[in-house]
Amino acid sequence: MMILTLEVLPTWGVLLTVGLGVLACLAFRAIYNIYFHALSKIPGPYLWSASRLPFIYSLLNGTIVHDIQGLHQIYGPILRIAPDEVTFARADAWTDIFPLRSDRFLKDPVWWKRQPGSPASLISAINPETHTRMRKALAPGFTARALIAQEPILQLYVNLLVERLVEQATKKYDINGVGFDIAPWFNFVTFDIFGDLGFGESFDCLQNSRYHPWIALLFNSVKAASFVAAARFYPLIELLLMKCIPPSLKKMQRDHYLQIVNKIERRLNFELERPDIMSHVIAGRDNEAFSREEINATFMVLTTAGSETTATVLGGTLNYLVLNPDKMATLVSEIRERFNSYETITLEALRALPYLNAVISEGLRLCPPIPWILPRRVPGTGDTVCGVWLPGGTPVSIQVHTMNRDPNCFHLAPSFVPERWLPSETDDPDSPFFHDQRNAFQPFSVGPRSCMGQNLALAEMRLVLAKLLWRFDFQAVPGRELKWEQLRTFLLVEKKPIMFDYIQQQHPPGHVFAAQHRVSIRPTERSCYPPLRTGKWKWRDSVPAGPRERKGDIVNEQHNTALTFHGFVEANSSEF
Ligand code: HEM
Hints:
Number of strands: 16
Bound molecules: protoporphyrin IX containing FE
Structural class: alpha+beta
Number of helices: 22
Distance between the termini: 87 Å
């Protein structure tokens, strides 16, 4: 007993001394951060200015945009959110951080650092030359002209969505109209469209009415990215975290990546002319603008950037519409009066619908899928943002969620008022919306790293909303309304079920239905040798369906003696 005490006492003594020493260092550091740091004059709460920990807690909790919004309300639009970091909720931050012609404020490596040996993607590339090279190679796939060629692909999947929802509505109606959750369906359609545009093969989510397993895993990896970023603030913790990842998880990650690599491999080997995004990358490959590894990494992240974002805005917008039946009624009238048949709903016609476009702008304002723009680093020895000088290397970000809901920027800021975007309000000095700070609203960001998919996203949203509202009436489920502004954020918005009471089918008078099934053969797989070189096979070649085929069936079409294609029966309007 005696011996034990003698041995233990000094150990405790040492531990206590070390502990007190560490505490003293932390206290000294906190005091330095609050009062003597170069950012000490920037407004912000003491705790967040003293240590990175409150920021990390908020990030991991998924409440970061709400917590920061609350802090902006107290401290104003320029806010210190960590000892060495500042965030902005002011319109001029867009032009200061993302000047149109230069790429001086580079992406912060904390968020974009790559694992050793892994290639850069368009989105993760920090080096401006690498980024510009990749962006140039991809740009032709995102022009307005490219979109015209891609319209049949969009129409195909939006029709399939409508068809699937007809089936759902019938099922739900039979069991007394309990509602259903539409949120996954918006993911199904946007992922399928991107699958087709990016890899030449859909993820078949609509076909199977469920997530492709690859996509289900993807959501987890987006969430995990917040945790990895949090660990990066403490290199020792990052190192431990990386060492602790079990081999099974690493294998899962690898397999996930390899599935995309295989899809890309198949697409690069097609020798078919398709109006998709990859065709432009293939066309430019002689210039070596993109290495194979860079293509893999880019299309992997593009799958999320090009699908989850659009699905979020669609879900949020429809949610606001059902909660505002007067706005819904105005939109439904505009759509149903403009189109007397479902088939005449085209992208070109939709661009000219003022209320639809105003609704989408309002949806983007209140439901931004990227609620805060991740930090950029202040260049060189320092620069000025919103009139405040900041030392070089300071991470600076933009709070989209806060700004879009700020009453100083928008009249009736928290309310869903599409009218604010109509020329009748924006051009009338007597309108309360005339003074809205429309330059604060940059849903696709600005400058050299702005969204490449803006045209595509707007086209998808117009088409999905117009076709759904032409076809169905939507109502909220009393007591199950979703409060969008409360959704958590893990880099992207974490969606919850968006419930509707029922979907009622519409049969507008005078609508002419197509008479015959058509089969659209979508080449997804080349299963035989020799490879097709004739170029005869064209996108969306159609043949009449055989007597046993039903819409949605997978069919095999013998194209010639050497080749078999897999395709599926296109959405069939004769059953609407
Ligand atoms: C409503 C839907 C969408 C919204 C609101 C949106 C918004 C944004 C924003 C704010 C950024 C800048 C992020 C940053 O700088 O940190 C961005 C970047 C990007 N977006 Fe989108 N996006 C949408 C849909 C799409 C789609 C459909 C695609 C493509 C299929 C796409 C492709 C990209 C790409 C490639 C970038 C990175 C550009 C670069 O770094 O050069 N986005 N998007």
